[in-house]
């Protein structure tokens, strides 16, 4: 189990490993392009060489990519849906060039099409993304908080989405805040064990590749996406200690997406807490 955080690529993706090392990361997460859209920096062999050299120099063992925020596989607008499919596939290809481990994304919102139609559209989109994909970077579906009809907020929904052609190659990113907001308790050792036992039964722990490790500003089952520093939210430190010490999760990396508004200090503190729990 290695710990890291989402870091900036300002100036080029090759700067991400140094930014991660500065705060004590062992792994990192980044965007390879603006999360809101716009200019897309080129990723080629030269960029990959610089990135991998920086990874080695800064002793970062793995890199993960977060897909842009505008992705929606359940959009009623054909252009939006098609663009989402294109972007995710492109990020997988870019991640493979860089040597990144995985790309995670949210399925999208079914607000305008309804849940039943949304599920059909998501499955169709996933099959198109995975068609003839030969890259080394893995696609991960991230559990959502369920706000605004966002899909994928239950283990059953995620497992259903995985039942597509190419689905055997897709993994899962478990976000502690999103899961908690979706009704999965994580506040102590017992509830952590129960939640991941349920995950294993419905999806399978072999599918779990990454855990976004965030406390929650909102209550259990609130369906609101509001992150907090570890121990400063409704989950609490006992829950995160239980996750770190859970032997069934020992090969899963943990990435922090806790607030940066207070500078790097809060995220550094979160990383140190995780390392303390690991011992």
Descriptive labels:
single chain; 279 residues; alpha/beta; TIM Barrel; two-stranded antiparallel sheet; 39% helix; globular
3D structure, described in words:
The protein has nine helices and ten strands. It has helices at residues 16-22, 45-57, 78-98, 115-130, 155-162, 176-181, 189-202, 237-245, 265-278, and strands at 3-6, 27-30, 63-66, 102-105, 138-142, 171-175, 208-212, 215-216, 227-228, 253-256. The strands form two sheets. The protein has an eight-stranded parallel barrel with strand order 1-2-3-4-5-6-7-10. It has a two-stranded antiparallel sheet with strand order 8-9. Helix 3 (78-98) packs parallel to helix 4 and helix 7 (189-202) packs across helix 8. Helices cover 39% and strands 14% of the residues. By secondary structure, the protein is an alpha/beta fold. It has a single domain (3-278), classed as TIM Barrel (Alpha-Beta Barrel). The chain starts with a strand and ends with a helix.
């Amino acid at each position: 189990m290695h710990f890291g955080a989402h870091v900036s690529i300002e100036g080029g993706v090759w700067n991400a490993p140094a930014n991660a090392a500065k705060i004590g990361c062992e792994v990192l997460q980044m965007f390879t392009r603006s999360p809101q859209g716009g200019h897309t920096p080129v990723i080629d062999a030269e960029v990959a060489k610089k990135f991998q050299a920086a990874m080695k120099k800064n002793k970062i063992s793995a890199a993960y990519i977060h897909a842009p925020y505008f992705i929606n596989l359940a959009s009623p607008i054909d252009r939006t849906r098609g663009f989402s499919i294109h972007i995710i596939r492109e990020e997988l290809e870019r991640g493979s060039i860089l040597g990144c481990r995985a790309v995670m994304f949210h399925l999208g919102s079914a607000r305008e099409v309804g849940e039943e139609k949304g599920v059909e559209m998501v499955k169709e989109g996933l099959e198109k993304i995975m068609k003839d994909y030969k890259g080394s970077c893995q696609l991960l579906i991230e559990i959502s908080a369920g706000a605004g009809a966002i899909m994928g907020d239950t283990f059953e929904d995620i497992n259903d989405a995985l039942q597509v052609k190419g689905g055997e190659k897709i993994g899962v990113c478990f976000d502690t805040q999103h899961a908690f907001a979706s009704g999965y308790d994580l506040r102590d050792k017992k509830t952590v064990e129960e939640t991941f036992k349920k995950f294993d039964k419905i999806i399978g722990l072999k599918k779990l590749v990454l855990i976004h490790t965030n406390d929650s500003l909102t209550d259990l089952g609130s369906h609101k996406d509001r992150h907090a520093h570890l121990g400063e939210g409704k989950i609490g430190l006992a829950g995160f200690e239980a996750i770190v010490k859970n032997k069934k999760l020992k090969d899963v990396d943990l990435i922090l997406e806790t607030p940066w508004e207070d500078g790097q200090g809060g995220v550094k503190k979160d990383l140190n807490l995780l390392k303390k729990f690991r011992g």
